[in-house]
Structure to design on (860 residues):
């Protein structure tokens, strides 16, 4: 269902003063939140196979006037409020295979999104660290012929992020960290 | 303290041996003359690269580079109209599989939008990917990743109301208001036709924008542009109501009856408020996909498009991750709209659908809609031939266009529904026959395996192809933020988990068929909504009503007299709402109409139903809007272990119209 543009659906409001109780409820600031979404999933079709682990940090809040500043933070707390979160995933396979491994740290939102986040990978003795660059919309690293072995790939998203936004309006930002493996060729 | 989550993925999927294919064929668009950030038009270069795809049978990667690709759509294609596409992937002479469109951080910047283009003709599509190949084959494995879509001139116009003048009641036609258009929005506003205003001042959006819907020129204008504001700036315009419109006597259009006479009064428009005029809508989508088996869209962003964001039909097994449809943050929050219509439409989809970690924000209408179109059954009303419906013979005709190719195949499972959207039974299609009653190509005659179901007083009015609706839809970790319609419109086999819907004027989730106008099915069942957060919803501006609830479950029926109402019991059953938070919801929180077997458990309701009781709506709707939970024509209901937090200012805690739901189980709730 979507909107029927040809049929009026709006109705008139009653005349009279704006009810103050309703307005005060809005002033309660219910609409600011910080949310962490995380997950890992794999996908297989007849011809392609992939797996992805991700960690998403969402910030949303509203300033009611132009001098207000929002400060929202995703971290594990601590005295400075910047203790790192650590979200860990593991990708493994029974049969070794090669493919594209793409590490991404994509930020969306106001320039006031800052922090320190890393993607840490470990597979046997091999390891790699991608540091999120908050000044870039996209921090990307790709391994085109990555070998996923039976010992698997350990993925950790580690760090904190925070959003600072000044001015009237609704502000939203998001940092999405992901590691995606797409098989291009299987062995064995 | 660290929070550690360990998830182990055991990928048995990698058990299979060597993948078929001859290695990856990479097509660099730069080799065909398309270079980012050079300020030159890239349409011809990208088209040339696309034309090279069919020479490879499989494993093709169309590679872009990070940077901005300029697309001067108007210069190349002329006036936008339906069916026009910048980049078409179709007409393959042979089947192609494993096609990847790898953006690598590319931004597609489309130029040429003008507000005076005929709106009914729609804006262009960016990508049209039709995977149909010879022998009824489809494109196998389509991947789209790491790209961003946006427009140069935003597909709407914003400004600030600089003055409101409300005349006396006896002389309302003399009322007017002035709008000062933002300097960044250019255009000839004298040709702009404004059809209606749909944004009210409410507690939900005290600092929000007013939202004008601009229809095509065939529609009666809602407003009259009187011209430039006398003494105003060069970009300041004066509007009055259009009392010659056939709609002008209808309540929703009486804008000028509802201008406030004093600053503290309700009204539809105030001085200093921001206003938004939307332009093109519907028709072409930014990314349009058809006839593809296995579609994967990853890390793809659509900031702005005059129409829908992504439309996919007649395809199977869809997967989305990291997809964003949201206004460009460099332009937001001042310019809050992304697409001028719905965000996502998925129709005629089979197999599974997965959405992970996606954001929908600022759409001009609904965020997400998954459905199968219903066909209207001919009963011979418009023909002298009465044999177009043969119940005992298992044959009927429908208004389904099926010209060059037909989406219906023998063996497809169909659902039969009555005029209110209630299911009457299912059967398998046996054969496609030559139409007897239908005129031209707009008709199909369908032969089913068995006699058609006959229920007294409920003739078959619609059919819906269940083989073209997914057997599993999973929506996880997604957020819908400040669009102008509903959040998720779903029917059956759906799980929505860990999602947030905030700031929508209508519902967060709507479950059920819609018949009589949109004709979107099938009937609803087996939907789970778990661990979601619904905030600041249902305040009734935009396209929504406080009585629709944050979660609305039911059949939506537009009668022949064009009145929207709800179908009888049976349209939807088996819906579970578990562990969700409802806060600052304008009207009712959960409304069930025409439903059965509903469970609402472990939810928290906070600061809810705070607005609906103020409204002067029709009786049933008003009672719904005043209720925390509302049931109508509903059978079995369980309300278990829910919490009512501070501030919920409903008038009725739970209420039902007509007969009480049976059984009606209340247990473990904090209000008991």
């Amino acid at each position: 269902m979507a909107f029927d543009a040809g049929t009026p659906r709006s109705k008139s409001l009653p005349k009279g003063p704006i009810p103050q109780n309703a307005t005060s409820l809005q002033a309660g600031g219910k609409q600011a939140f910080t949310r962490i979404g995380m997950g890992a999933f794999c996908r297989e079709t007849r011809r392609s196979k992939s797996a992805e682990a991700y960690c998403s940090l969402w910030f949303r809040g509203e300033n009611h006037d132009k001098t207000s500043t929002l400060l929202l933070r995703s971290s594990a707390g601590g005295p400075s409020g910047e203790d790192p979160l650590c979200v860990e995933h593991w990708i493994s396979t029974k049969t070794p295979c090669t493919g594209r491994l793409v590490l991404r740290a994509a930020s969306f939102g106001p320039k006031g999104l800052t922090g320190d986040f890393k993607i840490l990978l470990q597979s046997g003795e091999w390891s790699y660290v991608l540091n999120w660059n908050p000044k870039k919309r996209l921090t990307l690293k790709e391994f085109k012929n990555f070998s996923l072995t039976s010992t698997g790939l350990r993925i950790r998203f580690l760090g904190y992020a925070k959003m600072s936004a000044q001015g009237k309006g609704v502000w939203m930002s998001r940092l999405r960290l992901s590691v995606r493996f797409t098989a291009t060729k299987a062995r064995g | 303290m660290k929070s550690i989550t360990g998830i182990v993925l055991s990928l048995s999927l990698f058990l299979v041996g060597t993948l078929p294919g001859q290695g990856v064929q990479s097509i660099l668009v730069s080799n065909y003359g398309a270079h980012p950030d050079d300020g030159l038009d890239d349409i011809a270069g990208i088209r040339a690269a696309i034309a090279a795809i069919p020479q490879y049978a499989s494993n093709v990667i169309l590679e872009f580079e990070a940077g901005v690709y300029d697309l001067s759509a108007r210069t190349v294609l002329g006036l936008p109209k339906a069916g026009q596409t910048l980049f078409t992937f179709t007409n393959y002479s042979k089947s192609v599989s494993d096609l990847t469109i790898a953006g690598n951080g590319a931004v597609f910047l489309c130029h040429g939008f003008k507000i005076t283009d005929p709106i009914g003709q729609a804006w262009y599509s960016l990508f049209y990917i039709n995977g149909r190949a010879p022998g009824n084959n489809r494109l196998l494995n389509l991947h789209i990743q790491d790209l961003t879509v946006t427009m140069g001139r935003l597909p709407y116009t914003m400004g600030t109301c600089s003055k409101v003048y409300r005349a006396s009641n006896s002389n309302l036609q003399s009322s007017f208001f002035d709008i000062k258009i933002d300097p960044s929005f250019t255009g000839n506003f004298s040709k702009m036709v404004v059809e209606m205003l749909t944004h009210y001042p409410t507690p939900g959006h005290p600092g929000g924008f007013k939202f004008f819907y601009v229809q095509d020129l065939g529609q009666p204008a809602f407003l009259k542009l009187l011209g430039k504001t006398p003494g105003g700036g060069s970009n300041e315009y004066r509007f009055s109501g259009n009392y010659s419109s056939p709609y002008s006597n209808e309540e929703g259009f009486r804008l000028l009856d509802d201008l406030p006479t004093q600053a503290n009064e309700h009204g539809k428009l105030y001085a200093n408020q921001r206003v938004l005029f939307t332009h093109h809508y519907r028709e072409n989508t930014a990314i349009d996909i058809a006839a593809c088996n296995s579609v994967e869209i990853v890390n793809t962003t659509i900031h702005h498009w005059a129409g829908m964001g992504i439309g996919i039909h007649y395809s199977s097994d869809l997967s989305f991750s990291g997809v964003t449809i949201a206004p460009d943050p460099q332009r937001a929050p001042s310019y809050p709209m992304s697409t001028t219509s719905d965000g996502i439409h998925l129709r005629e989809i089979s197999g599974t659908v997965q959405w992970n970690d996606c954001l929908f924000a600022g759409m001009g209408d609904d965020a997400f809609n998954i459905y199968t179109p219903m066909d209207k059954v001919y009963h011979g009303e418009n023909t002298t031939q009465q044999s177009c419906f043969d119940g005992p013979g298992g044959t009927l005709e429908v208004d389904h266009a099926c010209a060059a190719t037909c989406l219906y195949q023998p063996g497809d499972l169909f659902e039969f529904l009555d005029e209110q959207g209630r299911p009457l039974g299912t059967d398998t299609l046996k054969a496609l026959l030559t139409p007897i009653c239908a005129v031209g190509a707009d008709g199909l005659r369908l032969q089913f395996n068995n006699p058609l179901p006959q229920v007294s007083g409920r003739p078959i009015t619609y059919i819906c192809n269940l083989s073209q609706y997914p057997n599993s839809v999973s929506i996880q970790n997604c957020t819908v933020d400040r669009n102008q319609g509903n959040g998720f419109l779903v029917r059956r086999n759906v799980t929505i988990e860990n999602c947030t819907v905030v700031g929508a004027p209508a519902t967060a989730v709507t479950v059920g068929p819609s018949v009589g106008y949109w004709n979107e099915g099938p009937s609803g069942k087996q939907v789970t909504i778990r661990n979601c957060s619904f905030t600041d919803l249902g305040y009734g501006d935009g396209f929504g009503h406080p009585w629709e609830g944050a979660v609305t479950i039911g059949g939506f029926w537009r009668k022949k007299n064009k009145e929207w109402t709800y179908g009888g019991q049976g349209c939807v059953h088996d819906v579970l709402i578990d562990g969700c938070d409802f806060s600052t919801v304008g009207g009712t929180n959960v409304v069930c109409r025409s439903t059965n077997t509903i469970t609402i458990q472990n939810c928290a309701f906070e600061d809810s139903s705070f607005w609906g009781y103020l409204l002067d709506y029709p009786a049933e709707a008003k009672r719904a809007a005043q209720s925390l939970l509302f049931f109508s024509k509903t059978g079995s209901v369980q309300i278990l272990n829910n919490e009512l937090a501070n501030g919920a200012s409903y008038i009725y805690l739970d209420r039902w119209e007509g007969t009480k739901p049976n059984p009606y189980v209340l247990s473990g709730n904090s209000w008991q």
